[in-house]
Write a structure and sequence with these properties.
The chain is α/β, with parallel strands linked by helices. It has six helices and seven strands; from the N terminus they run αβαβαβαββαβαβ.
Length: 189
């Protein structure tokens, strides 16, 4: 996640150097209880102090209404671009709110391959979609000539979409057998 935060900082710096106006406002959406809250605060302080931009931070809760409300608040405050540090599910909601308004949404960590569609033209992801990981794992199977494998993945959209491409590649090319598939809940210890 630190790499993602660093990418975000580089992106903000790049945006600022491209914009000649000193009144740029960037919306930052993050979920309540985000473990990287202190890192976000440092990035915000740095950007506002050194880069002469305004960052409008908005924390949101777990409900759909919380997500929509947070988007509306940063838009109402004049954000020209919105940055989301959330899951694919939350990012989909954020994109559905800001894209029709032609406001770019920069997603720091959303990886759902089905997130990008024609209704979300203004969505920019910093992380590759999950299906890239499935292809990479398949390439490792081929490289090491592994014939039997077991798959363990989280039971959320991240895990399900990640293995969907892997299973698709295995079914398409034969020669490999999935012996076991195990799904687990990332929220339980």
């Amino acid at each position: 996640m630190f790499r993602t935060l660093l990418c975000l900082a580089v992106l903000v710096i790049t945006m600022v150097t491209m914009v000649t106006s000193s009144d740029l406002k960037v919306g930052l959406l993050y979920r309540k209880g985000d473990p990287y809250d202190k890192a976000w605060q440092k990035i915000v302080r740095f950007a506002e102090k050194k880069l002469n931009i305004t960052i409008i931070t908005q924390e949101y809760g777990e409900t759909l209404l919380d997500n929509v409300d947070a988007c509306c608040k940063v838009i109402a405050a004049g954000a020209a671009v919105v940055v989301s540090s959330s899951t694919s599910q939350d990012t989909a909601v954020h994109a559905d709110v800001v894209s029709p308004l032609n406001i770019p949404l920069v997603s720091v960590s959303a990886t759902d391959p089905y997130l990008k569609n024609s209704d979300r033209d203004y969505l920019l992801r910093l992380s590759p979609p999950d299906n890239y990981q499935g292809r990479a794992i398949y390439d490792l199977l081929e490289l090491f000539e592994w014939k039997e494998i077991s798959i363990m993945a989280s039971s959320d959209s991240y895990g399900m979409n990640g293995i969907a491409e892997l299973q698709n590649m295995i079914n398409k090319h034969y020669g490999h057998t999935v012996k076991h598939t195990l799904f687990f809940d990332r929220n339980k210890s």
